Amino acid sequence: MPRVRRTAAIAAAVVLASASLMTACTPQDESAAGDDGLARFEHQKIAWHSCADGPKDHEGAVLDKAGARCAEVTVPLDYQRPGGRTIKVAISRLRATDTAHRHGTLLYNPGGPGVPVRYLALQLRQAAPVLATDYDVIGMDPRFVGRSTPLDCHWPAVSVGSAGPDRGTFEKTVKLAKDLASRCNRHRSVLPYASTRNTARDMDVIRAALGEKKISYLGSSYGTYLGQVYTQLFPHRTDRVVLDSTLNADDFGPDLTSALGPSVTRVLQDWASWAARREGTYHLGSTAAEVMNTVSELNRIVNQTPIPVGSHTVDSQNLPQLLWNVTAGDSDEAYASYSADVRVLVSAAHGGRVTPTQTLEQALTGLAAPDTDGTFAVQTAIQCADRAAASRDPETYYHDIQAHRADDALFGPLTRTVTPCTFWPVTPAEPPTEVHNDVPLLMVGATGDPAAVYQGQLAAHRHLKNSRLVTLRGAFRHTVYAGLFAPKSRCIDEAVNHYLRTGVLPPGDTTC
Fold first, then answer.
1. Where do the structural domains in the chain lie, given as residue ranges?
2. pLDDT at residue 25 above 50?
3. What are the contacts of 299-303 at 24+ separation with CB within 8 A?
4. Residues 401-450 pLDDT 10s
5. What string of DSSP letters covers 428-439?
6. Predicted pLDDT at 35
7. How many other CB atoms sit within 10 Å of the CB of residue 339?
8. What is the mean pLDDT of the chain?
9. Which tens digit of pLDDT belongs to each residue from 34-44?
10. Euclidean distance between CA atoms 299 and 110, whole angstroms
11. Torsion of CA 319, 398, 433, 251, to 10 degrees
12. Residue 181, exposed/middle/buried by CB under 10 A (0-12, 13-18, 19+)?
């Protein structure tokens, strides 16, 4: 998912087989608990220790202060060969504060993919008191992420960016995507095993090593895909499951974002109406149509000539990435921040000497920086391991962009262009997971979600036959529970908290 701000990246869905093979996988995975190959992993003794790794580890120190304990769990690199190479998966645990009413253990994944979760588990518990009292909360850095045997391809850039207005700018994205993919070739022995299926298996090893017969789960954005894969592989080991802003499992993979341009444009239109009512402050237009025209004119100017913004340059490659930040939330605060950013960009496009806002400065600095911690490389590795790219021929992507120039002019060249997966050095070790099960669970989401589009949520709801869906209508935000990455909704929070506390699902689908 093309993201700049940290919260949007976490909440994103980045960021897509054979049905007979998938049907066979469920009994194979669930029976693995008793086989000799996995028994040594599932019966391992977890050695808990402090979370801080030295005096400069701020997040670890905060976890320690909150009473968390951390550990590393050993898992197979390849679950088809459990006697072979192993890796370490890092976890944190925050014990339930009400031991008399403790319900069990809940594992959390906020999205990504490629987002470390050890520390974010604390933020979740602070935002959702029911979790603090009733559950031991586990934050797991997924395999190859954060402190879990990290994978770093040393990418010189954090993304490919937009394909821009013409053949020449498109070829720049092709060249960059090829280069990024080639830099991961040194890890080809592990890349096929970076899949969500293996992360779900790691979750089940952790469940067993903790001595839990069942485990509860809360996932948002990409975390909903991970949750669906877990319920498919281990349907009898789930307790209470909440999926926030659910992705359609059929779509997850390297081309997940290809059709998201129109949904992000709808958020942009909602923001334009907001900005038009504040024309006296932002001077972007007095009607939604005028504001949208202002953005279109900004895009046209930048497509012709890059513009200076402080010490940075905004061009056809990074402007759509900056404008994508409209997806950070539909609150007054988020829209005001975005409006200030757009005001600066528009002034620069018309020849003004501008100073970027703090958020715009951070975004531009981040886009120009290398992938210093490997976050974006491993995010890509997970998507490439889950499903092969739709095409390995760059012409396919160029033709798709050209076919949608009229109806997806701003974001289409960003979402529809090549990715490093187009040129990935390895193929997935397994087919993607086909999700169809009747595990009881709760889904929550917004009708205007730009990343987990509502039609995709409904498709997931149909595949999860015993799910209940609570819909937040008229909201343009990605993730809706606990106000972690988007504005809070009391109605959504009450529905989720009631289910987590009682285990009772709503009798039917409801709306907020």
1. 1-16+152-189+255-433, 17-151+195-249+438-511
2. no
3. 299/323, 299/409, 299/410, 301/349, 301/350, 302/349, 303/164, 303/165
4. 999 999 999 999 999 999 999 999 999 999 999 999 999 999 999 999 99
5. -SSPPPPP-B--
6. 53
7. 21
8. 93
9. 455 899 999 99
10. 32
11. 60
12. buried
Reported pTM: 0.94
Specify which residues 92 forms β-bridges with: 70, 139
Best CATH choice for the domain 17-151+195-249+438-511 from the list 3.40.50.1820, 3.90.550.10, 3.50.50.60, 3.40.1080.10: 3.40.50.1820
CA distance 139 to 161: 31
Q: Can you tell me the distance from the alpha carbon of 128 to that of 145, in angstroms, rounded to the nearest whole number?
A: 25
Task: Please give the C-alpha separations between residue 452 and each of 112, 281, 455, in angstroms, as whole numbers.
Answer: 13, 32, 8
> Across the strands, what pairs with 76?
86
Q: Name the CA radius of gyration of the chain, rounded.
A: 22
Rounded to 5 degrees, what are φ and ψ at 441? -160, 165
Nearest to 51 by CA among 110, 130, 144, 116: 116
Count of all residues that appear for the chain in the document:
512
Sign of CA dihedral 75, 81, 83, 87: negative
Decide if 444 contacts 492 (C-beta within 8 A): yes
Residue 497 in contact with residue 485, Cβ under 8 Å?
no
DSSP letters along 35-81, please?
A: SHHHHHHHTPPP--B-S--STT-HHHHHHHHTT-EEEEEEEESSTT-
C-alpha dist (Å) from residue 213 to 33, 34, 94, 236: 11, 13, 19, 9
Closest CA to 73 of 242, 269, 207, 174: 207
**Would strands 86-94 and 312-314 be described as parallel, antiparallel, or unpaired?**
unpaired
Give the strand pairing for 312-314 and 307-309: antiparallel
Question: DSSP states of 87-121 as a string?
Answer: EEEEEEEE--S-GGG--EEEEEE-SBTT---TTHH
User: Which two structure tokens, joined as six digits, stand for 275?
Assistant: 């900005």
What's the CA gap between 270 and 260, in Å, rounded?
16
- CA atoms of 343 and 347, how far apart (whole Å): 6
Q: What is the pLDDT of residues 213-228, one digit of tens each?
A: 999 999 999 999 999 9
